[in-house]
Write a structure and sequence with these properties.
alpha/beta, 2 domains, binds magnesium ion, 10 helices, Rossmann fold, DNA polymerase, domain 1, binds 6-O-phosphono-beta-D-glucopyranose, globular, 223 residues
């Protein structure tokens, strides 16, 4: 079957807000005296804010924290993270991402976002894509974040497409698992590509156009 839609993760795929997540969690971890490096940060990709905090607190040597204290820490990280987001402009949409989105749309593909983030609407607005996608499923409309497939299934349903017709694009291993569990093919970039988590492990978002082309050619009916 040819792909009829592409569902993009947001942080670390459409723009580099994954770096801001890293910087904000690192600041909080440093304050708590928790060891935090980029390898550990990769485990936070794709998972919810509270699950990320839970993973950090597994390394916390201090006294047990009450729910209200944990909520305050998650809020502290989010406030720091949102300070970075508010500094973003359309110049933070990488040119190769914009040209890839335009090329996919020109080929008639439906385009969606499938992100665990509750900040997705703000990010899309900051980078000039608030009205671009045919569907946006994000952390505000799901009960379970990646690796649960809910957000991708929701995006596909919003598009009116079956999972088999959609290609998911991810930078997180948790997101690749979510895609596979939902019955999607997955193209990975960044850390998930380096981990070999995708059906396609790509150097760049631009390579998605090649994946789509190869599918279109190899899946032609045989005569
Ligand atoms: C995902 C990120 O896109 O969103 C995770 O990869 C993040 O790192 C998650 O924890 C939730 O984001 P937010 O913006 O709602 O805290
Ligand atoms: Mg991501």
């Amino acid at each position: 079957m040819r792909y009829r839609a592409v569902i993009f993760d947001l942080d670390g795929v459409v723009c580099y807000t994954d770096e801001y997540h890293y910087l904000a969690w690192k600041a909080l971890a440093d304050k708590l005296g928790v060891p935090f490096d980029r390898a550990f940060n990769d485990r936070l990709r794709g998972v919810s804010r509270r699950e990320s905090l839970r993973l950090i607190l597994e390394r916390y040597a201090g006294p047990a924290l009450y729910e209200a204290q944990q909520a305050a820490l998650a809020e502290e990280k989010n406030a720091l993270y949102r300070r970075y987001l508010h500094q973003m402009t359309p110049a933070d949409l990488p040119a190769e991402v914009k040209s890839t989105l335009d090329a996919l749309r020109a080929r008639g593909l439906k385009l969606a976002i499938g992100s665990s983030s509750k900040n997705a609407p703000l990010i899309l607005e900051r980078i000039g894509l608030a009205d671009f996608f045919d569907a946006v499923a994000d952390g505000n409309c799901i009960a379970r974040s990646k690796p649960d497939p809910e957000v991708f299934l929701k995006a596909a349903a919003m598009l009116g497409e079956a999972p088999e017709s959609c290609l998911v694009v991810e930078d997180a291993v948790s997101g690749a698992h979510a895609g596979h569990d939902g019955g999607f093919q997955v193209a990975c970039v960044g850390s998930a590509a380096r981990a070999g988590a995708g059906d396609y492990n790509l150097e760049s978002v631009m390579d998605i156009c090649n994946v789509i082309s190869v599918q279109a050619v190899t899946l032609q009916p045989k005569f």
